[in-house]
Every structure is written in structure tokens, then in C-alpha cells.
Amino acid sequence: MPSRRRLARLSALLLASTALAGTARAQGASVQLDQLSVEGTGIAPALGNVATGQDSAATSGGGGGPSGVTGYTARISPTATKTNTPLIETPQSVSVVTREQLNDRNVQDLAQAIAYAPGVSSSVFGFDPRYDAFYIRGFSATYNGIFRDGLRLNAVGLTIPRSEPYGLEAVTILRGPASGLYGLGSPGGIVDSTSKRPVFVPFGEVQFQAGNYDRFQGNFDIGGPVEGTDGTLAYRLTGVKRQSNTYLPGGDDDRSFIAPSFTWRPSSDTSFTFLSEYYESRLPGTSFFYNDPGFKVTNFYSGDPAFNHYKQQQYRIGYAFEHKFSPDLIVRQNVRYYDVNADYEYAYIAGLNADRTRASRGVGYYRDALSQISVDTQLESRFDTGPIRHTMVGGIDYAHYDYTRAFGFGSAPDLNLVTLNYGQQAITRPALTTFQAQAQDQVGLYLQDQARLGRFILTLTGRHDWVFQSTVADRTTGTAQNSTDRAFSGRVGLNYLLTDAVVPYASYATTFTPQVGVDAAGNPFKAATGDQLEGGVKYAIPGTNITAAIAGFDINQSSILRQDPTNTANQVATGAVRSRGYEMEATANFAPGTNLTLSYTHLDVRLARQTSLVTGEAIDGNRLSGIPGDSFSAFTTYQFAPSSFLAGLQIGGGLRYAGTSFADDENTVRNPTVTLWDALIAYDFSALDPKYKGFRAQVNAFNIFDRSYTNCQAGFCYRGAPATVIGSLIYRW
């Protein structure tokens, strides 16, 4: 589209947003937007639900977490700008899942953490505890859209780094392209998790949890200042130990996690935080059930307890450094080394005999390893040029990973479908016969200026990336395929402070994603590219902790892989996808322990240029399968007042509605709508007697009506998670 047409549409979006917000003008606000800062922005603790000292893991700027947090609401997040910009002034859609919300919902993985956020499709692949797999605005974010402390978690093959939710202070979802600050990525957006960090207030927490499927888990989180250091050194130690089964035959859900960290703060201008982690899990090798023709999921589990595990070990070590030369000149550096190893063995059903009494089976065995290092160095400065106030951040980041894979396949004894003799036959592990390797380097230079003139804030972001990739398809026989990509990506956004509480905005942003492989002529695929137009209104009710936002967007991604129409054994980078829709979100903290979050999403994701892998025909204009067109979610909690005869009791619940979608990209069959209900009940024993302060009992239930459901995507169908109940005994001090 010519640049003049793009600028015209951008202007139209801003004018439309301003018109929509015109009727919502308010007189003044209790806090000026430009006065918000990290200092003094702790959580007002909900009764018995947030331990003292657990609420200030934020730092000022890129790599730090949200601040200005009260209950489920947050005023500031650096994810979208790498600066301490209030959310209401950010020219893109941003949602924050705070620690209190993670506690209330007793979140067990990253997909659960963001399940109530707008724009997110977190159940596309049903119940699959192996990966944090989800879509944002119709685009997969699993491999290039997950971040930790502002640094990308590279994922390749089966080595997909996991984030233990108990080790997080918050989760931030930035919707829309983020390449202007972060480089290669998903057009749909990114999810940035903030690690728990030391605080200079003594605190502690221990938990014991038990649930169905023989689930037992212990958590602990302790920290505070180190004695004898004059308040310059603080530590934190967080850990999880779990042993559990799942509803899958022989499927474990075991986990070990420990995260030591310390912060050295020799002065108010300098801080150095050391972050480390060890994580180990044992999960089912597969979560799939055999599919009959016609998009029907049978009760025949594909796995077998005799050969069914996915073991993953990962560790990280790094630091976050910040120094203020002056209040208007700050340097930061975030560094992390990550190592992930996956050992993966699974069985699968290849077919059923005519009378459906036996199933032929095969097995696979993979060993994957991924090591990666990331460094982001940035400089932030604030200055004036006449009447314009600038907040500028610039930096350079570097990321490198090495990935290796070895795998092999074999056969397994038939499964008796009459007796379902899972685990009763020996299965031989196949030999590793194929060996692959890949390495990638990414270097990026970025610069962003947030210029404020009166009530206008113009955000200009630009970045240039160089990506070098080497892939060996078979190390025993093949040679390396090398590719080099370079791209400029950016963002322009305009906010208008209609009042201090109502801010319409519009933005345009671009993204790119390198692609592995070559076409029929042996030429490397060019990177997939995308852009987005977004416009909306953000609103914060003065004098309250109630925020709301509405946004409309139009995303185009091109140069994605499709089957070569002239050579069906190969691919060409000529495909395209278009995602359009709108989102609405409201978050509120009415009183300690009483919160509400609402979200609604309408998505229209279509294959603009694509070839069917089933028919070989063009399916241009078809909807992308498995992604609901409409979704709605709501979660609320209510804490009875201390004067009530039910003092100490907290109740809550939520619903997650997913509208219909197509089961295949050929758009022949639809998935049904699904509504799932969750529930919370908790009791703070200090209401009985002050001597029980810190003791809390909590029960969480997910899919409480045990709705049996499936979702089909690209022609394969997945079972959803059954009802799950987890009870917790908690002591905080």
C-alpha cells in the first residue's frame, strides 16, 4: 500500500478514536500522567493474599516489570517502550497479569496465566502440558513471541523454554508487532514474564498443595535484606516441587524448580540484580488421541505408559544492571545465558484394523539441546527541545543460539483396543539415526523517541537487524545451508491526552521473521514480513483503580511459506495472512481482595494467499482454522469486609467462552462453541484470631462442570482439559 494511503488511514484511525472518546471527557484526575514513577508504587495487599515484600520486583525501564500495581490493575509497564511509560500513554494494546491475579487463579503454566487476556487463544491444542503454546491475534507466539525479563526466550524444535508461574512477579502481553524494539518476532505480539526479584523487606511464604490425579506440590518463597550489609544487599530464593499424574494413562506432571537471586544496591543510583534458575520437568510424551475420519476424536490414547515421557531440564543465569548518571540519563544492561535439554519418547497409533479391535503403532525418540545467550544494552535520556519534552532510549542487543537434534523411529506392538493393554508390553527405544544442527546470530540497533508537545505524545521507533543462520539437515551426510537476513522495522504511534483519564491513540508498526529452508532452486526463503494498523481509546477512571481499553487492528503478514504450485514437493515464500478485529478490556480493583477483569475479542483471520496441503488447491480467503472468531472471558473475586460475619472469606469465579471456528483450513467443518467455568474459595484465618495472621486456605477449580470438548486445528483434533481441583494451605509472614 502506498505510504500516503497508510498515513491517511493512520490519521483516520486517530480521528475516529478521538471522536469515540469525546463523550467520555472527565474533569481532571487525581494523578498527573507524567508524574507516575516506580518509586512508591507498591501493591495495597489484599487481605492475606500478597506477602509483604512480594510487590516490588519492578525496575525503572527495559527488562523490569510493571509498577503502580494495585490488585489486578497496573499503571506502568516498560514492555511496550523499554521506558517507564504509563499504560494509558502507550500507543499499542497492553495487558498486565499481576501477581495477585496469578495467586487468585493459582496459575500452573504460562498459557493459563494469559487465558483471561484479550486477543489470546490459549486452548487451540487442547490439553497439552508439554509446551506454552498459544496464539495472539491469530498468530502463533510459541517460538518467537515469549520473553523473560525483556529478553527473548528462543525456542527451536522441542526445546521450548518454560516459565514457572510461581517464580514470576507479573506477565505482560503486548499485542501487535514489537520488532521495532525487540527484532524478529510474531506479528500478533509478545508475552514478557517478569521474574521475582529481591526486595529490601523481610518476607516469606510456604505452600502445600494437593489435587486430583494424585497431585502434591510444595512451594516456598523467602527473602529480604542481608544482615550486616547496611541495606545494600538483598536476596530471594523461590522453589517448587511437584509430583502429579494427569488424566492421560501413564502421563506424569512432575516439576522441580529453584531460583536464587540477589540484588546489590550500593546507592540509590546503582543496582545490580543476579538472576538464576534451575527447572526440571517430566511430562507425557504425547497428549493426542486417535482421530477417526470426519474430525472425530476417539477414546484411544495414542501414548503408552511403557514409552511415554518428555523430560526437560533447563537452567539460566544472568543479571540486570542499572545506573543513573542523573535523573535524566540512565544506562541499563540485561544479560542471560539459557540452556535447555529435552529427552522425548512417545508412541503413536498409525491405524486401526477393520473390526477396530487392534491398533498398529509406531514410536519416536528425540534428544534436543539448545543453548543461548542474550545481551541488551540501552541508554535512556530525557531532554527538552523548546516546548517538546523527549524521552529517548537507544541500544544494541545481541542474541546467539546453538541447537542440536538427534532422532529415530521404530515400531511398537499392536494395542489391543478391547482390553486397552496400555503399559503391559515392552517397547524398544529406537536408535538415533538422524542428526541435525542449527545456529543463529542476531544483532539489532534500535532507537526510540517519545516526544510530548502539549497533550500530544508522538512515539517513533526504529530498528535495524542482522540475522545470520546456519542449518544442517543431516550432519552425517549434508552440508550447512547458510542464510542472512537484514531488515528495518519500526513503529509510529500518536497519543492524544483528551483528558488525564481518556487517551485515544493510533499506531503503525512492522515486523519480520526469518524462515528456515530453501526453495526448488536452492535459494533461501526470504523473511516473512508484516505490518499493523491499530487505533483505540484507553480510559482510567479518576480516583479509582479501574481501567478500560478498546482497540481495533488490521495486521498483514506476507512472504510466508506455502506449497509451490509448480512443484508440489517444495515450498515458496509467497503466502499471506490477514488478521482484522477489535478487542475490549476492563480491569478493576474495588477494594482489597475484590477485583474484576473482563475481555472480549473479535477476530477475522484469513489466508490471503495459501495452498491447501490436503487438496493442493488455492484456499485464498479461507479463515485460519482453530482460532475462535469471538471470545469472552471474565474473572472476579470478592473479599468480605472485616466487619462482616463472613470476614476472612474470599470467593471468586470466572468463565471462558470461545466461539465457533473452522476445524480445517479448507473450511469444511466447524468447531463448536465452548464455555468453561472456573472457581475460587479462600479463607484467611486471621479473621478468627490475630495470632493466625498469615494462614490462608484456598481451593481452585478449573472447568468445574467437567465440560468434555475438543478443538480441531489444521484438520487434527485435540481434547480439552478435564475438571481439575487444587487445594492450597498457605502461610505468609
Automatic annotation (TrEMBL):
The superkingdom listed in its UniProt entry is Bacteria
Q: TonB-dependent receptor-like beta-barrel domain: from which residue to which, for each copy?
A: 263-704
Domain TonB-dependent receptor plug: residue ranges: 87-190
What residue stretch is flagged as signal peptide? 1-21
Q: Which Gene3D superfamilies match?
A: TonB-dependent receptor, beta-barrel domain, TonB-dependent receptor, plug domain
Q: Tell me the Pfam families matching this sequence.
A: Plug, TonB_dep_Rec_b-barrel
Major place of residence: membrane
Keywords attached to this Swiss-Prot or TrEMBL record, sorted alphabetically, are: Cell outer membrane, Ion transport, Iron, Iron transport, Membrane, Receptor, Signal, TonB box, Transmembrane, Transmembrane beta strand, Transport
Localisation: Cell outer membrane
Q: What topology does it adopt in the membrane?
A: Multi-pass membrane protein
Region Disordered: start-end pairs: 52-71
Its family remark reads: Belongs to the TonB-dependent receptor family.
> What is this protein's name?
TonB-dependent siderophore receptor
State the species of origin: Methylobacterium adhaesivum
